[in-house]
């Protein structure tokens, strides 16, 4: 089964990001936006795992101790760079705690999975299929007025992802409370 570890977003944040997706929707680019119900913050993509590895990882994740923390939406950006825009996202601030939680998870499951090379605290809004007018599209992204919405992160999830014709379908396999 295909799995990842993530932070789920409160409905108010999902609603706000959904409205933001409508604002970014553009005649200058074709973007496949993430469905509102699937908006999340990925902490670690695990890929395909078997039942044995699932049991092992559940045991490790249950033991992780980390304090709850608040984050806020920061700005709209894109990966990998201005020449090749492939993903539009919203960053979070402060990133210290998000990165700390991700590194804690990464180090605890190191015997089961490879360490992540680079982690960026971001919420993917959509994947860019093609751009008709890069200059206008970049201008549009730079002019997005992002509200500083804050929310509490009090848990993280192990999630199974089934790829379907209409997009991924997520199933919670475990929830892990922060202190």
Summarize the model shown.
This protein is of the alpha+beta class and 179 residues long. It has helices at residues 11-24, 51-62, 96-108, 134-142; strands at 2-8, 29-33, 40-48, 69-80, 85-93, 122-131, 150-153, 155-164, 167-177.
The largest sheet is:
5 strands, antiparallel
Mean pLDDT: 95
Largest sheet, spatial ordering of strands: 2-6-5-4-7
The percent range for helix content is: 25-40%
Q: Which band does the percent of strand residues land in?
A: 35-45%
Rg from Cα: 17 Å
Regions with little confidence, pLDDT below 50 for 5+ residues: none
Number of strands: 9
CATH superfamily: Cyclic phosphodiesterase
Q: Total domains, how many?
A: 1
Total number of helices: 4
CATH architecture name: Alpha-Beta Complex
Q: Per CATH, what is the topology?
A: Cyclic Phosphodiesterase, Chain: A
Counting copies of identical and different chains, the oligomeric state is single chain
Shape: globular
- The secondary-structure element order is EHEEHEEHEHEEE
Coarse structural class? alpha+beta
Amino- and carboxy-terminal Cα gap: 29 Å
Describe the overall structure.
With 179 residues, this protein is an alpha+beta fold. It has one domain (2-169): Alpha-Beta Complex (Cyclic Phosphodiesterase, Chain: A). Helices cover 27% and strands 43% of the residues. It contains four helices and nine strands; from the N terminus they run βαββαββαβαβββ. It has helices spanning 11-24, 51-62, 96-108, 134-142; strands at residues 2-8, 29-33, 40-48, 69-80, 85-93, 122-131, 150-153, 155-164, 167-177. The chain has a five-stranded antiparallel beta sheet with strand order 2-6-5-4-7. A hairpin with a 4-residue loop joins strand 4 and strand 5 (85-93). The radius of gyration is 17 Å and the shape is globular. The model has no long low-confidence stretch (mean pLDDT 95).
